[in-house]
Amino acid sequence: MGQMISDYEFEKYLEENRLMGSRCNSCGSLFVPPRAICGHCHHTELEWVEMSGKGRLTAFTCIAIGPPSMAQEGYDRNNPYCSGVVALEEGPHVVARIEGVDPRHPESIKIGCQLSVKYLHRDGGQKTVLGFVLQ
Q1: Domain termination site, one of 50, 68, 84
Q2: Nearest to 14 by CA among 69, 45, 51, 46
Q3: Which domain holds residue 129?
């Protein structure tokens, strides 16, 4: 029997410094962030599974004008940040902040570079955001 999968639980796992996804009990597909319904076979019995937190960069963008929450953290035209798509070792792709790169010089950021998970604690530890950093 599958377990209840929710965004709330995913965020709680992030607070515990755990990267969790969901695996379909029918076809074995993995999803990060987790889904309650399999995107491949539409099965509704999925279970939580912990990811290694390792992967490689498959795409990225450097953002100079972001949402208000990023502006509050000090990101702007003079201090951009990097967001990217990470292919996890287990197969799923996840969008996250990329740390340890120079978003002012995107030409220095290499597709295929090895990354590992970094939990970004914000608002005095009240919120945890998924990030990755160069290995």
Answers
A1: 50
A2: 51
A3: 54-134
Give residue 103's identity as a one-letter amino acid code: P
The full DSSP string for 77-116 is TTB-EEEEEEEETTS-EEEEEEESS-TT-GGG--TT-EEE
Read off the pLDDT of residues 10-57 as tens digits, 9 standing for 90 and up: 999 999 999 999 999 999 999 999 999 999 999 999 999 999 999 999
Q: Are residues 28 and 58 in the same domain?
A: no
Distance CA 85, CA 132 (A): 10
d(CA 37, CA 31): 10
How is residue 37 written in tokens? Answer: 């319904």
